[in-house]
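Hey,
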Amino acid sequence: MTDSASAQEQPHAAPASAPAAPVVAEAAVAVATPESVAAPAAEAGAPQPQRKGGSRRGGRNRRKPEGRQAPEGAAEGTLQAAASGAASRAPQRVHPALEQLAALYPHLFGAVFRPLKRGIFQDILAAHPELFEREALKVALGLHTRSTRYLQSVAAGDKRHDLQGQPVETMAPEHVHHALLEVYRRKKARATEDLLPKLRNRMMAAFEASGLTREAYTELVQGRDEAANSILEEAFAEWAARNAKDEALLRAFEASGQTLEAFADMYGLVARTVGQQLERARRLAAARVQAPVAAVSAAQSD
């Protein structure tokens, strides 16, 4: 890791199909498939198909395949294969440098993973010059920042933290977006439900938290992965439809002259939900008013 920023930003570099997304390089637990257990069993002496024909003395001495006994040692071989499969499911050992970091900074590397500030690599080396070997620390931080738990903290939009555990830097919108996509890809492989609706909702929450316009946000986070870009467009379509609904509700509420509770009851709605929709509509209206003012100010400063 030649630059401290790479400990946080480069782990989210995209693969060839999705250059902007984080690389899947987490130290994962190896899981044996049924095939991986069955294959060693056959090699260890499991019964094999018998050639046709049987004995020359006639059918009376011909053995029936279904009554055939397993060769001696087959059961032992199967047990050994099962034991081998169980061993392959054992988690890999944590990198020694990560164990040291967790002991030194449990608020960053312990039970809860916090996003790390850019420059944390140099900070750790400066704080512990005799404890960490440069290349080992580089590998350890790479494993850590590509782990699913770390990416989940980035996807949540948490701020970057220094060695003292203090939030010091806002996470870049593109890093949040790419972490959301990578966490979705990893969960999708083992999920039994459709995770796309949740992903789209979280994308829109991240977009709104960025404070950017739709055009600026799209330009910032969009990459060469067309599937990911399509998900973003679907999320924006849902966001626009929700905004239109919220604005219509706000207009109806303001025209009614009713209290929030009375208005919600009149339409058979939940007052708390209506309040959230009205608040979103007001924020959107305020943002539309402020956008031209901000654009004029920026032009004047240039």
